[in-house]
Specification:
This protein is mostly helical. The chain is built from 7 helices and no strands. The protein has one domain: Tetratricopeptide repeat domain (Serine Threonine Protein Phosphatase 5, Tetratricopeptide repeat), CATH 1.25.40. InterPro entries: TPR-like_helical_dom_sf, TPR_rpt.
Length: 122
């Protein structure tokens, strides 16, 4: 029986709502093309999400960057790295990542034009 996510996790930017479900923005098995197994890729993504949940945003940015090397077309990773960079006060880098996520998938709900505008005001 799968553990039910807590209310905090369900509504957190870095929550585990997608745990156990395929990511919609993942570009297939791109990781294999870059010498990374799917299991190693998923482990890196899990570690990056856990780093965010414990507030270690510097580690999260590093881990999301590693995961993006394996799957550079993954809008979720750009969106999550954007949020981690925002927490670190790296506003321009956060805006750049949010714009990339939006470019890759304009309908991705966590990155919208108003969100980009809000980032641009910092």
């Amino acid at each position: 029986m799968e553990k039910q996510a807590s209310r905090k996790e369900k509504f957190s930017v870095f929550g585990s709502r997608t745990a156990g479900r395929p990511m919609r923005c993942v570009s297939g098995d791109r990781g294999a093309r870059y010498g990374v197994s799917k299991a190693a890729f998923m482990e890196t993504v899990q570690q990056s999400n856990e780093a965010c949940q414990r507030g270690d945003f510097q580690a999260a940015v590093h881990l999301y960057t590693n995961a993006l090397q394996a799957d550079p077309q993954n809008c979720i990773l750009y969106s999550n790295r954007s949020a981690a960079r925002l927490k670190l006060g790296q506003h321009q880098a956060a805006l750049d990542d949010a714009a990339k996520a939006c470019e890759l998938n304009p309908k991705w709900p966590k990155v919208s034009v108003p969100h980009l505008l809000q980032l641009g005001t910092h």
